């Protein structure tokens, strides 16, 4: 059997390793330059590859193709493969066939990284043999090849879910759904929503779907579509018959029995969205029989994800916060919502079809100045020019931070929360966040 892997990044190389271990004839093809660390792995494992091109004769010879999540379905080589009837799947589909471990799959427009890290943290504290991967950390396929985990906690993007056929997590979590990546979904929100719900399409009555009861998009979809899995919602607003909810500010889990886990005031991560992330993670852990003491302790001592509302430094009474991971409007909404002081907001990058009007009430209430960080800031300027007196355009993280330093006064917050992708000025959101942090340290 010939396995062709398109894209030699984390998921591609992981799939190649697992494929070779399982006896496939593996060929890796990347249209760009393969990073040195991945090239070494391919050479060490004696896996044949090409870079800077796709040789069609070698690719069309495949029995099965694993496409990296970054490659859109619209690309001509992918279309051609599908026309020839060659199966094109994602890494999680390929790897899930080779593990007997329980899979906890986590998706959503925002909060999925934090929730994935929380679930992993709780399960480790509960002494379970667990590995974390998918869209975060190591590739799932490589973990399956090299470790024997009893549980895999996977962060799953919609792109990874687009390439599944039989993949079914035992526990699925959908943190929330708001417009994102619409450029990959023909600018139709409906397509993106359906993509997220693929996480539950192969689940059975013995599986669980944990979701945000307060999220209208999710609730509406569930009203109109059948799901086999047991539904376990979480809510900040409603006391539920079954699921996770707040009662007298306590987080309560109700499934078969009712347990008070902890008071929400003792959660390590602050903000409504993080309370929801904690509820989802607690529910998943309790299904996996982790003791409630271990759940509580984990939620009290958890340290958040880098680049997600990360405090950098306080300089002259001004707090600098790195929220570079906010690559869509909804994530930035959470960030602005959690600001308690007048805010100098650094925003902008590659716009994925954003509608900034959702942010208007928060900007009116909290933002004293806007610093644009992107090559094309027209939409941001047009949206907010009547509500914010000062809007400055800058051409990089260092300049943005220097301008913020001049504008901000004692007691203010400088918040990098771009609401956009980073690919115009930076390699990725991590690079953007790191450049921001470096610039703050050099003030």
Automatic annotation (TrEMBL):
TM stretches of this protein: none
Subcellular localization, as worded in the UniProt entry: Cytoplasm
Gene Ontology biological process terms, A to Z: cell division; cell wall organization; peptidoglycan biosynthetic process; regulation of cell shape
Sequence ranges assigned to domain Mur ligase central in this UniProt record: 106-285
Enzyme category, top tier: ligase
UniProt KW keywords: ATP-binding, Cell cycle, Cell division, Cell shape, Cell wall biogenesis/degradation, Cytoplasm, Ligase, Nucleotide-binding, Peptidoglycan synthesis
Mur ligase C-terminal domain span: 307-420
Domain of life: Bacteria
GO cellular component terms, A-Z: cytoplasm
SUPFAM superfamilies for the chain: MurCD N-terminal domain (SSF51984), MurD-like peptide ligases, catalytic domain (SSF53623), MurD-like peptide ligases, peptide-binding domain (SSF53244)
EC numbers, comma separated: 6.3.2.9
Residue positions binding ATP: 108-114
Reaction catalyzed: UDP-N-acetyl-alpha-D-muramoyl-L-alanine + D-glutamate + ATP = UDP-N-acetyl-alpha-D-muramoyl-L-alanyl-D-glutamate + ADP + phosphate + H(+)
HAMAP family linked: MurD
Role description: Cell wall formation. Catalyzes the addition of glutamate to the nucleotide precursor UDP-N-acetylmuramoyl-L-alanine (UMA).
Similarity comment text for this entry: Belongs to the MurCDEF family.
Stated name of the protein: UDP-N-acetylmuramoylalanine--D-glutamate ligase
Gene that encodes it: murD
